[in-house]
Amino acid sequence: MGKGIISASLAKLLQARGYEVTIQKLDPYINVDPGTLNPYEHGECYVTEDGAETDLDLGHYERFLGIPTSQANNVTTGRIYQSVINKERRGDYLGKTVQVIPHITDEIKRRVKMLGGKNKLDFVITEIGGTVGDIESLPYVEAVRQLKWEMGEQNVLVIHLTLVPFLQSSGELKTKPTQHSVKMLLEAGVQPNILVLRTSHELGDDLRRKVALFCNVDFDSVVQSIDVSTIYEVPIMMQQEKLDITVLKKMGMDYSGTADLGPWNKFLKRLQNPKFHTKIALVGKYVELADAYISINESFKHAGAMNNCCVDLEYIHSERIDESNYCDILKGYAGILVAPGFGDRGIDGKILAARYARENNVPFLGICLGLQCAVIEFARNVLGLTKAHSTEMALKTPDPVIDLMEEQKGVTEKGGTMRLGAYPCVITKGTRTFEAYGITDILERHRHRYEFNNKYLEAFKKAGMIPAGINPDTSLVEIMEIKDHKWFVGVQFHPEYSSTVLKPHPLFVSFVKATIC
Ligand code: GLN
Q1: Is pLDDT of 26 > 80?
Q2: At 390, phi and psi to the nearest 5?
Q3: Fewer C-beta neighbours within 10 Å, C or N terminus of the chain?
Q4: DSSP state letter for 502
Q5: Is 368 a catalytic residue?
């Protein structure tokens, strides 16, 4: 539906007016975090600097606002219950019966307020996942009712996003679903203050008036969110709809002046009027679902715009690629990206993709598992270690060029136990990577258990695959490059998590550039 984008757009408008703002996502599912979820379930798992595995909406928040989020910005029902149950076991409830109201709702409210209090923010925008009427959402709606009651109308505002379907046969927009979901909210004691109506067709004044009347909101508080070609137009659209002004007015805040979206508009112009085109292949195994690689997708939009270039990113399922067809499938792409991933399904196709890029001097970016595949390929076909592999896929390989990190060896639990979050890396001067960043000391986010095996480092260096970045504290290899190649970079971290609209990631910018010149 687009709650994440509407939240991020409103936050952008408030931020551009000089307000301090953050966004938080409450997810009604029972997993403690999305780290253990298959990407087919809810799309990509996004990782914050502090190492939280979170909902992909946090990626939108960071890309729009350009400020880092943290664990506190994503809370699930699982986490809420976990902390309430921990308190109960500690005896904190002093013999009381622990119940959804007030204990679960108190914990929800505490998590909302904590974010604002800790960071001295003007606004906390809390996005509640799911749909009104879901059983899982009930405690959240109740917490909203209580917050409104306790903090007062001026301090808590409810924005409800609904869908207005268009009936092709009669050429009509239908407001019934909106009326019904507002009614359900009212039954739960929550009167929404602003309605954002998602629609494929313009809403006329009559329709807005009707919705306002039926749903007890002001005419100005019926906001249209019409389908647009890129999510990055939504803040502009919300500004035209005066969503920021309506919010500020209702909350008794200063709404004079306008939000300055100058740099944002510049980006949008470049995005929508590209001078160049490039075609890049993304080789991965979750290609059926666009959301599985959403941060990579968006990073290419930022980096493309920076290069005045439209990046045509085509997804290729790595299971489709084998010895007999890899040249045919991969020829015709100006660049190849091998995506992050887990497990051995489709691994051979990924290794072949790295091989094709190396042998044909095609710009290559390998991310996490993508780097690991490039390393395995190089070991097998350049160093002659024909059985080289990662111990993730082949526990008994004679040449474990990718191996489990020492601190991972005793780990048996799956949730939240990977190497997660931002770690430092020092870049080697004179490399493509250094050319891209222009600095030597960087911090990048991680999400993996396996790493380059330093036993093989000398052999790799001698043969022309060199470490372009090393963790200064642990000596773990963070970046590998092929020296005599147009642009071949593999990174153990995830650059896609930190690319934003106004600060595209340097590696993506350089990679795209290498594909067009
Ligand atoms: N499966 C690999 C590891 O755990 C790579 C993970 C990833 O690509 N995020 O090291």
Answers
A1: yes
A2: -100, 145
A3: C
A4: S
A5: yes
CA of 419 to the centre of ligand 1 (A): 10
Residues with C-beta less than 6 Å from any ligand 1 atom: 340-342, 368-369, 392, 447-450
| Residue listed under structure tokens 């990577």 | 433
**pLDDT (tens digit per residue) in 167-202:** 999 999 999 999 999 999 999 999 999 999 999 999
Mutate which of 342, 401, 447 for ligand 1? The one with the most ligand atoms within 8 Å of its CB, which is 342
Question: What is the whole-number distance in angstroms between the Cα of residue 82 and the centre of ligand 1?
Answer: 27
Close Cβ partners of 432 (under 8 Å, ≥ 6 residues apart) = 468, 481, 487, 488, 489, 510
Distance (Å) from CA 516 to ligand 1 centroid: 29
Backbone angles phi, psi at 91, to 5 degrees: 90, 15
**Catalytic entry in 45, 215, 368, 425:** 368
Ligand 1 atom having least distance to the Cα of 367: 8
CB 363 within 8 A of CB 488: yes
Cα-based distances in Å from 41 to 31, 74, 153: 12, 17, 36
Give the amino acid at 222.
Answer: V
Beta bridge partners of 54: 46
Residue nearest to atom 1 of ligand 1 (CA): 342
Reading the block at residue 282, the tokens are 């993304």
pLDDT digits (tens, 9 = 90+) for 345-395: 999 999 999 999 999 999 999 999 999 999 999 999 999 999 999 999 999
The rounded Å distance from CA 387 to ligand 1 centre is: 20
- 10 Å Cβ neighbour count for 288? 9
494 catalytic residue (yes or no) = yes
CA of 392 to the centre of ligand 1 (A): 9
- Burial class (CB within 10 angstroms; exposed 0-12, middle 13-18, buried 19+) of 52: buried
Determine which residue's CA is closest to atom 5 belonging to ligand 1.
369
Ligand 1 mutation target, pool 447, 478, 493, 496, most atoms within 8 A of CB: 447
Report the phi/psi class of residue 120: left, alpha or beta, with left for phi > 0 and alpha for psi in -120 to 50.
left
Instruction: With H, G, I as helix, E, B as strand and everything else as coil, classify residue 360.
Output: coil
For 199, the enclosing helix (H) or strand (E) is strand 194-199
228-265 per-residue burial string, b: 16 or more CB within 10 A, e: under 16:
eeebbbbbbbbbebbbbbbbbebbeeebeeebebeebe
In our burial notation (b when 16+ CB lie closer than 10 A, e otherwise), range 185-194 reads: beeeebebbb
Q: Is 496 a catalytic residue?
A: yes
CA 88, CA 198: separation in Å to the nearest integer? Answer: 42
Ligand 1 pocket: which of 36, 368, 390 to mutate (most atoms within 8 A of CB): 368
β-strands 488-491, 477-482: how paired? antiparallel
Say whether pLDDT at 440 is over 80: yes
Q: What angle do CA 114, 75, 500 make, to 5 degrees?
A: 90
Tokens 């045509």 sit on residue? 312
**Cα–Cα distance between 347 and 318 in angstroms, integer?**
7
